[in-house]
């Protein structure tokens, strides 16, 4: 009787270990946090900030389109949600977001310690 009880306990331990192992395997690549470049996902397309295009006034040809949802800007890590689309286009290659950002100090350099609110161009990823 003791041998039978020890055998059943052994089987239960093995079964419970297998169960724990399957739960531990639940950490798939979908569980990992996003670690790529900041992006906005709009209409299923990925857009990336073009830090070379930070302007204090919205360029001609763009109009207010609404506010980005938290889901659309989940991987952008930005303060700001108002966005502006090009007028009269069927496909969206780029748009501007009015957001907090760094200040350009040259054509290739942004000073992120000098924060400002400006229009940042976001472009379709390749």
Brief summary:
By secondary structure, the protein is α+β, with helices and mostly antiparallel strands.
What would the keywords be for this entry?
126 residues, alpha+beta, 6-stranded antiparallel beta sheet, 1 helix, 18% helix, globular, signal
Describe the structure.
The protein has 126 residues and is of the alpha+beta class. A six-stranded antiparallel sheet has the order 1-2-6-5-4-3, with no helix packed on it. 18% of the residues lie in helices and 41% in strands. It has a domain at 39-124. It is built from one helix and six strands; from the N terminus they run H-E-E-E-E-E-E. It starts with a helix and ends with a strand. It has one helix at 2-24; strands at 39-42, 45-55, 62-67, 82-86, 94-104, 110-124.
Task: Report the total helices.
Answer: 1
How helix-rich are the residues, as a percent range? 10-25%
| Head-to-tail CA distance between termini | 69 Å
Shape: globular
Indicate the radius of gyration in whole angstroms: 25 Å
Largest sheet: 6 strands, antiparallel
Strand content: 35-45%
Count all strands and give the number: 6
**Structural class category:** alpha+beta
- The H-and-E topology, N to C, reads as HEEEEEE
Low-confidence stretches: 1-29
Q: Reading side by side through the largest sheet, how are the strands ordered?
A: 1-2-6-5-4-3
Mean pLDDT value? 79
Keywords: Signal
Signal peptide: 1-24
